[in-house]
Amino acid sequence: MTITPVLLAGGSGTRLWPVSRKSFPKQFAPLVGEESLFQASARRLAGPRFAAPLVMTNADFRFIVAEQLDQIGIAPAAILIEPAGRNTAPAILAAALRAAETDPEALLLVAPSDHVVPDAEAFGRAVDLGVPAARAGRIVTFGITPTRPETGYGYVEAEGEGLGPLVLRRFVEKPDAANAARMIAQGNFLWNAGIFLFAARTMIEAFETHAPGYLAPVRAALAEARMDLGFLRLAPEPWERLPDLSVDYAVLEKAANLSVVRYCGHWSDLGGWDAVWREAQDQVPAERGAVADARSTAIDCDNVLLRSQDEGIEVVGIGLKDVMVVATNDAVLVAGMDRAQEVRQAVAALKSKGARQAEHFLRDHRPWGWFETLALADRFQVKRIVVNPGAALSLQSHFHRSEHWIVVSGTARVTVDETVTLVTENQSIYVPLGAVHRLENPGKVAMVLIEVQTGAYLGEDDILRYEDVYSRE
C-alpha cells in the first residue's frame, strides 16, 4: 500500500518578512537551495513509498502550486482550494474524507510544505517505522530530536526514548527557556513537527469522537465542491462556518490512540530568519558566523545574516554582531538575531499604516505570468509584464486609465475593441480608456512588454472583466 502525501500550502509565513508576504509566502520562495520549499517538500514525498500528492491551498496560490509542481515533473492527485483559511483541522479532515471515498483504509501523510528536511531517504525510513501503527488504527506523529532548548517550537512527550512508534503522552505548548532545557535533559521530549500519518478512517473517527461539529460542514463543502480548471473548489458557505483551529487543539490533544516516531535527522521549519541563519551555518559554516549571500558583504562581523533578494542591491555590514539584515527591492529588515520571532510585529505595524509592503511585493504573480511595477507616481505607472507561452490575460476594460504597450521580446496578440493585431519586438500599441482589450502570447517563449499607464486612478481593482480563461471574477 502506498501512502498519499497531503501537502498543506496555504500559510502566510509573516516571520520571514520581507521575503515572505501574504501575496507570495515562504513556501513558494527558494529560501534554501534553488527550488522552493514547496517543491522540495513535494520531491521529498515522492518515490516508491508514495502516491501522487494531494495539495490543500487557497485560491490565490492555486496556479503557483500547479506551476511549481509542473516545473519538477510531479502531477498531483488533486489540488483542493479552501474558500477561507480555517487552520489545519478542517483541511486535514477534508483530505481524509476525500481519500475515504475510494478507500477508507488509505494511509495519508500530512506535512507542511515549508519545512527543510535534507535527507529524504532517512525521513522515508522514519515514515516506514510508523506505517504498522497507522494501519493498526493509531494516529502517528513525528517528533524531532531536539538539538537545543528551543522556545519557538511545541513539544511532544513520548513514553520512552527509542525511535518508536512510542505512545505519545501529551503535547506541550512552546515553553520558556528553563522548561525547554529541563525537557531536553529528560530525553523523551521531542519537537512537534506537525507531520501526521494515519488511515483515513482513523482520522474521521477521531473527529466523530472529539470534534463532531466539523463533520457536517466539511462533508457539505466536499459534496458541493466544483471542478474549476483542474482544481477542486470546496463550497464556501459550509466551509466558512467552521472553527479556526489546528488539528492538535481540535482532535489530537483529546485522542488516546496517538503514537510518535522519533526522527533523528536534520529538520527545520524555517520559522524565522534566525532559523535561516542556522540552516546556512549547518550547510557551510561561515567564519565568525557571518552568513552573507552573493549580493552581500560582511566586514568584521560576528553572527550576522546579510541577505539581498535583489540583483541591484548590495548589502554591506561593518562591525555588526548578532544582527540580521534582509533586503528586497522595496523593503529592508534590520533586527537583532534574538528578535527573530518578533518580525510579525513589523508586518502588523506596516498594515496599520497602510503600507503596501506589509502583504504585497512590487512583483505580482498571475495565472498567465507576472508583472512588476518599475515606476509609480501621480497619474502614471510603468510596469514590466511577462506572459507565459500560450497564456492570455482576461478580456477587460478600465474606467480610469489608458495604456501604452511596448513589446520587448516575443510576440503579442492584442485585441482592442474589434481589432486584433500582432505586435512584435520594438513595436507598440495604444489601448484607449474604456476600450475592451485583451493581451495574449501566441508564441512558444515568454513574451515581455513594458506597459505605461496614465489616468486618474491606477489601482488593480480598476478592471471590468468580460471573459477570463482562469475563471477569475
From TrEMBL:
Domain MannoseP isomerase/GMP-like beta-helix: 297-350
Limits of the Mannose-6-phosphate isomerase type II C-terminal domain: 358-468
Name listed for the protein in its UniProt record: mannose-1-phosphate guanylyltransferase
EC numbers: 2.7.7.13
A single MF term (Gene Ontology): mannose-1-phosphate guanylyltransferase (GTP) activity
One Pfam family named in its UniProt record: MannoseP_isomer
One GO term (biological process): GDP-mannose biosynthetic process
Family per record: Belongs to the mannose-6-phosphate isomerase type 2 family.
Domain Nucleotidyl transferase: 5-282
SUPFAM superfamilies in the record: Nucleotide-diphospho-sugar transferases, RmlC-like cupins
UniProt keyword annotations, A-Z: GTP-binding, Isomerase, Nucleotide-binding, Nucleotidyltransferase, Transferase
Superkingdom per UniProt: Bacteria
Source species: Paracoccus thiocyanatus
Reactions catalysed, as given in the entry: alpha-D-mannose 1-phosphate + GTP + H(+) = GDP-alpha-D-mannose + diphosphate
